[in-house]
Amino acid sequence: MTHELLTTLRPLLTAEASAEAHASGAERGDLEQAVWLRLLERLETTGPPADPRRWVRRAVRSEARRCRRRARAEQPYATEPADDGAGPEQRAMAAVRRSELHEAVRRLPGRCPGLMAALLSPADLTYREIAGELGISQGNLGPERSRCLGCLRRLLTPEVAAR
């Protein structure tokens, strides 16, 4: 009995789901699946509907309305959460790189460790603040920074090449 009911309702359900899918924003297969599930649940609890064809038409329209309501209520993410590139592996690798950079900065000569630490500071200091903190003129900060970056580059080149 149940198998015959499902077999006879399949073409009707496919046609109804196809007709409602576009307007509801749902996939035809999703509507069909939801209606089949509702029918199987109903067969298990209260038995087959008195008028199965009418029941299928109503169930498809009901599922389509549910899909439209859900689509209106859903808000898209500003960015894809999976695309943020900040998984545990990426965060661990970034932490290792930051640690290596800060270790290399500490090995720099002269005033370079203090200058580079100030430039890398999360406080995001201005050149004026850095110059005041280090006791050098603001005009010398740019050339001093260039020299320190050159030293840092030479210091890191063997480590980068070794990888």
List the keywords.
163 residues; mainly alpha
Question: Could you characterize the architecture of this molecule?
Answer:
- This protein is rod-shaped.
- Helix 1 runs antiparallel to helix 2 (28-45) and helix 2 packs across helix 3 (52-73).
- It has helices at 2-24, 28-45, 52-73, 88-106, 112-120, 127-134, 138-162.
- The chain is mainly alpha-helical and 163 residues long.
- The model has no long low-confidence stretch (mean pLDDT 85).
Brief write-up:
This protein has seven helices and no strands.
Number of strands: 0
Which value, in Å, is the CA radius of gyration?
A: 33 Å
Count every helix, treating DSSP H or I runs of 4 or more residues as helices: 7
**Runs with pLDDT <50, length 5+?**
none
- Straight-line N-to-C gap: 70 Å
Shape: rod-shaped
Please trace the helix and strand order, writing H or E for each element: HHHHHHH
Helix content: over 70%
The structural class is mainly alpha
Mean pLDDT: 85
- Beta-sheet strand percentage? under 5%
The biggest beta sheet reads: none
